[in-house]
Amino acid sequence: xxxxxxxxxxxxxxxxxxxxxxxxxxxxxxxxxxxxxxxxxxxxxxxxxxxxxxxxxxxxxxxxxxxxxxxxxxxxxxxxxxxxxxxxxxxxxxxxxxxxxxxxxxxxxxxxxxxxxxxxxxxxxxxxxxxxxxxxxxxxxxxxxxxxxxxxxxxxxxxxxxxxxxxxxxxxxxxxxxxxxxxxxxxxxxxxxxxxxxxxxxxxxxxxxxxxxxxxxxxxxxxxxxxxxxxxxxxxxxxxxxxxxxxxxxxxxxxxxxxxxxxx
Length: 264
Fold this sequence. Notes:
It comes from Pseudomonas coleopterorum. By secondary structure, this protein is α/β, with parallel strands linked by helices. Helix content is 27%, strand content 14%.
């Protein structure tokens, strides 16, 4: 794993659909933190499609994201950006084989064990009390293809299982904010962003009022932990197919393995 770099910016991206400007409830949201976990610029919420389409290089894409967040690109001329992305960034190997080669698995079980609907990383989370969505059956295919499109254009190199990069200024991992609800580690990192840490429900500082922005903040904190506290996060097992990717979640938000839930 790359050594921590004090100049790295940590961006969380809560991904909206391709046409999320038509969806007032759920849109793209961005939050940027520095190495000290201080908010940089302003949280942003909208549709990234134009920014994605207009960028002709990774540098243009990164600078476009920073401008949306009101970050001075003259100060951050060549930033190193580590992005935590809240959407599936891969499909299962059996699903890929099915649609590209017509290869079928012998049998198909319940939903959470269905090899077409879920990747191994999602099976891992099912067995530990979490319920990640499937881009095949849970209507998040728009978000998933949007995230994978961005990787294909701007971070096409698979550095390691679940880590993508352009080799210079952008690295990306898949994050999962819902997995942090039981995590004391991530909750401690979120505390400075509450107006009153003792309030119930929690009230976030200005700019983080919408749940999309709050999820983007959690993704940014997971990106920070990936670089500065990797021991906090569940790491991909050696037998995980890199083409499927990996969801990086905090270990202290997981229950002991109890067997996959079959009710979904």
